[in-house]
């Protein structure tokens, strides 16, 4: 049944400090809402457990993409449209740009945020395998200060993550170390557009001797929609690293990837919870 | 302020004053902050051109422009629309004069039952604003969040192409 707006509180304090104080005063009581593309869907369906919401849409501290020589820092409130239109992201982190393009239609890309996609924690989120292969780090903020954590093990199970009730994601940091890598991603959904992934692959790799080389120097591979959390298949990476690209290796990689999906420790620990 | 709030009674508790600009016209209404912008438009402001389809951001029938950006009004809590400039389908024509897009939709058969049409027009107008000379792929992508169950889309794409050919009107 549809929710009654009279049952809900929503405030928009307008700055990060005020939001953080609110979360600190009543941890777990307030749900942050940015572009609403996930929260409002639950709300419309009468399935939103939180009754008190605080808007973080357009908070200046969560906006913008900062570029430094070593890394780019994406404000958690950046929208998909901002990501896909950003020149440096398109050039150095194309998997993130294509994930942004794959997510929803234009209206949802104008409202959906990268931080929101992370905390919504859908195993089918297309941006998350990209964040895994780019070895993103997250800056989390709370009344207790800030901490920087790797994204790699941030999601611990279906819709579970290492985010305290008084914390929110402030920034997503990407090291600018992939410019001489090959970037590959593919999404398989029910349709070309506006469909959740059945499976999504993101990978970066570097060949010894450059793009014409034939030996794999370094590789990172991540999968979406195949487990309760987005999965980086490090076992496969170890096996193919240092090997020449040959048909046998391609076969082995395929076999190892499906093995990795089924038996990775990440998956086994939470497999029962898979919904 | 507090006096008048008391007079408004129980029904009004929890509501807030929301000011926004709708098709160039400033408006102030009292709404619950979590009311959907779609409902504010249709019920408080009487702008029933904006349609509700799925109510979950999949179909694009409720598309409006918010500060020039295409959004699904069913996914926007009223409070987040405070101070914004909204364009709805009611603001597209200049009086009796249809916009180039609307005229092209009529001529190309881009509208049948009409439920998706306001959203299609707004999504197309957003697209042409960003890409005045779109390719067919641009149009398909620009309208990928808007579902139509009548036309099979071909006439809609033709209409957008035709409007682009004629240029801004």
Describe this structure in words.
The complex is a heterodimer of chains A (275) and B (169). Chain A is 31% helix and 28% strand. Chain A contains 11 helices and 14 strands. Chain A has helices at 16-25, 39-44, 80-85, 87-92, 94-102, 106-109, 114-120, 127-133, 234-240, 247-263, 265-270, and strands at residues 9-11, 30-33, 52-55, 65-67, 71-75, 137-142, 145-150, 155-157, 160-161, 168-175, 182-189, 197-208, 215-224, 231-232. In chain A, the strands form 4 sheets. In chain A, strands 4-5-10-6-7 form a 5-stranded antiparallel beta sheet. A 4-stranded antiparallel beta sheet of chain A has the order 11-12-13-14, sandwiched between helices. In chain A, helix 9 packs antiparallel against helix 10. Chain A is globular and about 65 Å long. By secondary structure, chain B is α+β, with helices and mostly antiparallel strands. Chain B is built from 6 helices and 5 strands. The radius of gyration of chain B is 17 Å and the shape is elongated. In chain B, 34% of the residues lie in helices and 15% in strands. The A-B interface holds A 3, 5-6, 8-12, 33, 35-37, 40-41, 43-45, 53, 55, 57-58, 81, 104-108, 110-111, 192-194 and B 13-14, 31-36, 55-58, 60, 63, 69-72, 74-80, 82, 123, 126-127, 140-146.
